[in-house]
Design a protein that fits this description.
CATH architecture: Roll
Number of strands: 6
Largest sheet: 6 strands, mixed
Radius of gyration: 19 Å
Strand order of the largest sheet: 2-1-6-5-4-3
Order of helices and strands: HHEEHEEEE
Number of domains: 1
Distance between the termini: 62 Å
Strand content: 35-45%
Length: 145
């Protein structure tokens, strides 16, 4: 076997392995985003706590920043109530154990019993650890039509 063919085969296997790993991580991150979306709509405290890092920095489009405790409390006590959340235009970029997710979020809300709608562009930062992918940071901006 020639050296060129041998090294070509090694490179092919190496890059396919990296590609497969990247695709597997992208699917895991997409699954985590979907679990978070469902937990936010359902006010599921256990899932919200499982998917978020202890040092969560959750930035709202109005400028307020929640830590993990405040983020979970608002979604479980009804002060921040998502009736529906629809995500679109999602992209996922992974570098080692950090994932950057961007998407458009359209939601119907019922915060404190007051119906409303939001249309946001969202940036999520996820980090892979022993317990899987956890949300470390989020920032949203309002989309003007």
């Amino acid at each position: 076997m020639s050296k060129k063919l041998f090294f070509g085969m090694i490179a092919f296997v190496f890059f396919n392995t990296i590609s497969f790993g990247q695709a597997k991580d992208e699917k895991a991150v997409a699954d985590a985003v979907e679990q978070l979306r469902n937990a936010m709509v359902n006010g599921d405290k256990a899932v919200l706590e499982k998917l978020t890092d202890e040092k969560l920095s959750y930035g709202h489009s109005g400028g307020h920043i929640d830590d993990k405790k405040e983020f979970v409390a608002k979604l479980t006590n009804g002060s921040s109530d998502f009736v529906t959340i629809d995500l679109s235009e999602q992209t996922i970029s992974i570098s080692d154990k950090v994932a950057i997710v961007r998407h458009t979020l359209k939601a119907k809300t019922n915060d404190g019993g007051k119906p409303g709608e939001v249309h946001l562009k969202v940036l999520l930062i996820w980090q892979k650890g022993k317990g899987g992918w956890k949300l470390v940071a989020r920032q949203a901006i309002k989309v003007t039509q």
